[in-house]
């Protein structure tokens, strides 16, 4: 009979407790969106509704243009992901494979900018967007996020693990930089590119502060901003607030659960290479 290792048992118990604490708010949010008003405000609190009130979601869509919020969020997150991934790819390739004057200086400048919190320059960006007349537009929503120093450095570390002899051999064979990127570099870096793309999309989907600043029309709101406005408009109807919150969180949560292995694999692999 194997001896019980109480330290391991205690560790698992602590992990289970922390897992329950972490997951419970999400579960209650989903269940609360299916409760009646009396159940969401009852004391002691109701955990599982007696009847699933699916009509709460119909009321949410009837009281606020959540379909429009979904569309705006998907469009802005997609544009940000595609363009920032493309720019990060080119920037990382240049830093790894190309030799040019001032390369070291540019790397220092970019690294310095990476340490600057986004909140420091957010009002400068707002003034720029306002002067350009881009408030309440898709361009204004996505323009400051079309490049990412962090993603560029992430891919730079990824590309740095690929032997430089492959690039040199491609050049000797007459390939252009563009051909090397699309025919060799991209296929060899699918994991890193997928991770960057997915993280960028999640970041765009969860955006709140910037859209709050540059949009004041209901038709241009993103999901999180629409949820904030709806929470105020819904007043004391807690069940509708929870249903709206579920609509906002559930799609990106499902996306993460589906691709969590790819995200973790890409991050861990990059850390091991670094």
From TrEMBL:
Write down the membrane topology: Multi-pass membrane protein
Alphabetical keyword list = Cell membrane, Membrane, Transmembrane, Transmembrane helix, Transport
Q: Which InterPro entries match?
A: MetI-like, MetI-like_sf
Give the transmembrane region(s): 7-31, 69-93, 105-123, 135-154, 193-213, 240-259
Q: Which GO terms describe its cellular component?
A: plasma membrane
Where does it live in the cell?
Cell membrane
PROSITE patterns listed in its UniProt record = ABC_TM1
Which residues does the UniProt record annotate as the domain ABC transmembrane type-1? 70-259
Family assignment from sequence similarity: Belongs to the binding-protein-dependent transport system permease family.
Name of the protein this chain belongs to = Carbohydrate ABC transporter permease
Which organism does this sequence originate in?
Lactobacillus acetotolerans
């Amino acid at each position: 009979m194997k001896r019980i290792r109480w330290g391991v048992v205690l560790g698992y118990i602590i992990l289970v407790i922390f897992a329950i604490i972490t997951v419970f708010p999400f579960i209650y949010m989903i269940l609360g969106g299916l409760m009646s008003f009396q159940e969401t405000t009852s004391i002691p609190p109701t955990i599982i509704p007696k009847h699933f009130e699916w009509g709460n979601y119909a009321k949410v869509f009837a009281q606020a243009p959540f379909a429009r919020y979904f569309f705006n969020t998907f469009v802005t997150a997609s544009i940000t992901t595609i363009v920032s991934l493309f720019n990060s790819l080119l920037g990382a390739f240049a830093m790894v494979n190309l030799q040019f004057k001032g390369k070291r200086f540019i790397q220092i400048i970019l690294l310095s900018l990476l340490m600057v919190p986004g909140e420091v320059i957010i009002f400068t960006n707002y003034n720029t967007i306002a002067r350009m007349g881009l408030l309440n537009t898709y361009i204004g929503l996505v323009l400051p996020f079309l490049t990412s120093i962090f993603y560029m450095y992430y891919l730079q570390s990824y590309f740095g693990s690929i032997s430089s002899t492959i690039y040199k051999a491609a050049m000797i064979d007459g390939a252009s930089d563009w051909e090397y990127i699309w025919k060799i570099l991209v296929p060899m870096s699918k994991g890193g590119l997928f991770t960057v793309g997915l993280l960028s999309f999640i970041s765009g989907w969860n955006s709140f502060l910037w859209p709050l600043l540059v949009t004041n029309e209901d038709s241009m709101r993103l999901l999180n901003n629409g949820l904030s406005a709806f929470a105020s408009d819904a007043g004391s109807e807690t069940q509708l607030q929870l249903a709206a919150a579920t609509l906002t969180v559930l799609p990106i949560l499902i996306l993460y659960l589906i691709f969590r292995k790819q995200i973790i694999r890409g991050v861990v692999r990059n850390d091991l290479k670094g």
